[in-house]
Specification:
- The protein is mainly alpha-helical.
- The chain has a domain of 141 residues.
- Helices cover 67% and strands 3% of the residues.
- Strands 1-2 form a two-stranded antiparallel sheet.
- The protein is rod-shaped, with a radius of gyration of 39 Å.
- Keywords: Coiled coil.
Length: 222
């Protein structure tokens, strides 16, 4: 009989812990907070991993809530079955005394877990999340000092920060092509040399240096 009471008490205690955990996870989900138990750390060497792993962490949170609910329902069914078995064995006085003691223990366990998870863990996570969002907002609102030096903005049109960064490089800035057209550059250079009547290109000397001389025009005689 004592073994049955111990098992019954153990399951009621576990159910209380699960219920407090479910409430904590649901509150995190409703406030867009990712608890540490499901948070996946981003990789600094992989671009875009932060948003991908944050989405995965939120999905894990939903899965964990569903898993805890299933386990809580399973425990409640076992507790109800054991409650009926024990009630048939004990007398009415012993039964009422026993159920009052175990229910009080389960209630105290739930309140203790609630204080730890809701009052301490959740509030700490909420503060860290708000601090992180505040830092991100501060970085986004910080003016670009280079804009004040190199770009004098007189228009009322709004420009993206990326656009202003490009303007900071100057009007002569251009993106480098993936493949440099060497053949076209050489052909253009040779064509310009041939078209220039004021220059004469001689054969290369022994040092592979190509001399370029000023062309001398000989006046035509009649």
């Amino acid at each position: 009989m004592q073994t049955k009471l111990d098992d019954w008490n153990s399951r009621k205690q576990k159910a209380s812990r699960l219920l407090a955990s479910i409430n904590f996870l649901k509150r995190c989900r409703d406030h867009n907070i990712i608890p540490n138990c499901v948070r996946l750390a981003p990789r600094k060497d992989i671009v875009g991993s932060t948003s991908i792993l944050e989405t995965a962490s939120r999905k894990l949170l939903i899965k964990l809530v569903a898993g805890h609910r299933t386990e809580y329902q399973r425990l409640n069914i076992q507790i109800q079955n054991e409650t009926e078995e024990i009630r048939e064995i004990l007398s009415e006085i012993d039964w009422r005394q026993c159920i009052n003691i175990l229910n009080t223990r389960a209630h105290n366990k739930f309140n203790n877990c609630k204080v730890i998870q809701i009052k301490k863990k959740f509030e700490k996570l909420a503060q860290n999340t708000n601090r992180h969002l505040s830092n991100v907002a501060t970085l986004n609102d910080t003016p670009d000092t280079s804009q004040n030096v190199t770009v004098i903005y007189l228009s009322k049109q709004n420009l993206y920060k990326q656009t202003i960064k490009v303007l900071n490089k100057g009007l002569n800035f251009a993106t480098a092509p993936r493949k440099i057209p060497y053949e076209g550059i050489l052909e253009k250079a040779l064509a310009e040399l041939k078209a220039n009547e004021d220059l004469v290109v001689l054969r290369a000397d022994k040092g592979n240096a190509i001399p370029i001389k000023k062309a001398i025009k000989i006046p035509q005689t009649r």
